[in-house]
Amino acid sequence: MILAMDTSTDVLTVSLHDGKEIIEEYSSKNKNKHSTRLMPAIDRIMKEAKVKPEQLTKIIVGIGPGSYTGIRIALSTAKTMAWTLNIPVVGVSSLKALCLSAIMSEGYVCSFLDARRGLVYAGLYDKEGKSVLPEMNIHIDQWIEKLAQYDEPITFISPDAAHFQSLIHERLGESANFGGPGHQLIRAGLLAEYGKDMAPTDPHLLVPNYLRMVEAEAKWLEAKRKSDNER
């Protein structure tokens, strides 16, 4: 039995997967309570499925990017459980996990998260979920410029979609599509489905994927953009 979890965004999501299908799944949107709600959520779905800890065979966890604190909550929980139960653990990019709800869409899938100061964590994938552009921390204007080079439609998936939707439509026009509200969130069930056949990582070597510019670089970039706009 596979346990999957992600707390890298406002949504806490956990699931159980038997290797063939999703058995239980639970999601809750309240980022300020991830630390106190994650273990009760895991306990809840395991009781619902009548699964005991010793029946778990693998743990899959979203490793970011996203909220620094949120990433660490799920990652530390997954590593501790994997070590205690002596079972493999797999880390999956939270951007990859986010794009899974739109796999098989026409054209490409872009998953992204607001990284503040006009920056986004973003990745571009084909309809099978394979990476087309590497995940990066980049200014939204620069990211849109990169996407404008592609002729096929792009489906945007993000819990922060509303913040950037007008700008993206303005720059990319009809080639930009947005999934409905239910498709803009990470689902642990899809995370489990994606990661179930992935090779495990030593718990001690599994680290967060912060994908973050250092503070000085972010400030320099913002100052440069303001200077360029004033010319």
UniProtKB/TrEMBL annotation:
Keyword Ribosomal protein: no
Gene Ontology MF annotations: transferase activity
Domain Gcp-like: 31-149
Superkingdom of the organism of origin: Bacteria
Keyword line: Transferase
Keyword Oxidoreductase attributed: no
GO CC aspect terms: cytosol
Gene3D superfamilies the UniProt entry points to: 3.30.420.40
Matches recorded under NCBIfam families: T6A_YeaZ
Protein name in the entry: tRNA (Adenosine(37)-N6)-threonylcarbamoyltransferase complex dimerization subunit type 1 TsaB
Organism: Halolactibacillus alkaliphilus
